[in-house]
Please model this.
Amino acid sequence: MTYDRASVWKRFGAPTDQQGSVNDPRTQREHGVEWNEKWVYRGRDGQSVTRVVLWNRYDLAGVFRIGPDGSGEAEPLTEA
Model:
C-alpha cells in the first residue's frame, strides 16, 4: 500500500511541528533517507520528540520512532 499525506495524517494526527515543505527544493538526509519536509510529533511533555515522518516531495520517505537518546528506529506502517 502507498501512503499519502492524508492517510498518514489520519493515522497519526496533526504533527506538532513541521520543517521544510513539499515545495522546498533543499533536501536533507536523516535516518538514512533524503527528505525535504519533516513532520515532528512531540511527547506529552511538549519537548521530547517521539516520532518523525519524512517526506520527499509527495512521497513518504519514512516514519521513525525516536528514542530518549535521539536515535531513530524505522516504524513499519501496516494496515490499521
